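> tool_call: predict_assembly(chains=two)
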Amino acid sequence: MSTPTVEPTPDLTLDVRRLLCPLPILRAEAAIGHMSPGAILAVWATDPGLVRDLPAWCVVNGHHFLGIKSLGRELIGWVAKG
Amino acid sequence: MTAPTPPRAALGLLSGGLDSMLAVRLLQEQGLRVECVHFYTGFCIQAHTGATRNPEPGAPPPRHDALHAAQLLGIKLHMLDISAEYVRIVTAPKHGYGSHLNPCLDCKIFMVTQAWALKEQLGFDFLFTGEVLGQRPMSQRRENLPHIEREAGVEGWLLRPLCATRLKPTEPEKRGWVDRTRLMGFSGRGRKPQMALARQFGLRDYPSPAGGCCFLTDGNYSRKLQDLWQFRGERTYTMEDIVLLKAGRHLRPTPRFKLIVGRDETENFFLSGFREGRWALQAVSVPGPLVLVEGHPDEADLTLACRLTARFGQGRDTPQVAVAIQGNGRQETRLVAPLPPDEIPPAWYV
């Protein structure tokens, strides 16, 4: 897990806790569509798949993966819109 | 001097399995521009099961196969949520079900139709899939392949690169956009030719071909969905319904109520997010599962549910267990004797 040294300040935090893969990614895709390039989206989830899916989604869609942090059973990942 | 002609563009249906990955590679090898679409129906197997149970020691976190396939193949992936429209495909399939509640033929027609609409919207030249003739008993039978195209309204415009040489040439082949001699003629359920082609393309990281990708092809899951329809008196479902059918042990002691019993700590945590509108039961004094009760239990039913909750916890061999009940605006604790195993008829298990 690539935890960022400094936590990014998100422009939008998306609460997708309890949703199972691929819904966190689908919701993130819908949310980031309304954001400006460079804006930061935080994805707050419980699905452990986010650890692998968020970086992959960033590569596939040209966004910048900024890191992910574990908070017990919850995860928070940051993405800058590409 | 004229500008070089841009490559033809193909939109594929990507499940994330080996066949659809190979179909992408075959077209990329011919210089086509390839993007893919992946549909979320609500019944995907892999990532859900991995996310609701305790992980095996040392196992990596679950992942979404299509997303990772797209990353590996270097293509853009359009992920579309079709779960709401998909309800009518599952509840009233025109072409019926396969061996369980899998409406494979209707599903394929629906997905191809949806993919065609996206192709038109994005300006692609044609569609392709990773289907292999005769590999699956319903949607990949020789007589059904042209039927899928006809009913989806894409006749001649759906290329199947893995078995193309066994089928009539499609428009992209006739127009010279795709070299038919470089496509494959795979058929049947064997996987060796696909694995050999994967080696040739240097593809090593792909999901096990044995694993299905849809809960509706699973007998246990289909039985739970059938049970839900039967006791609700209507063939419909919500997203919450179908997610809960994937988690826990399901027991129906009477037509009035059903129990969903968490099987490990991760599943208990997962189920705890679905308390609203249900009764939630859990042993107080000893470790045990979180149990959700759905339906309209009466007082005796709730006591039985408490006894079952005690049965599945670590207090099962003690004379009495305190079980907390929450739901319907009230909260209480009942002291109950765990139900002996011989008083749980196998027929209660859904």
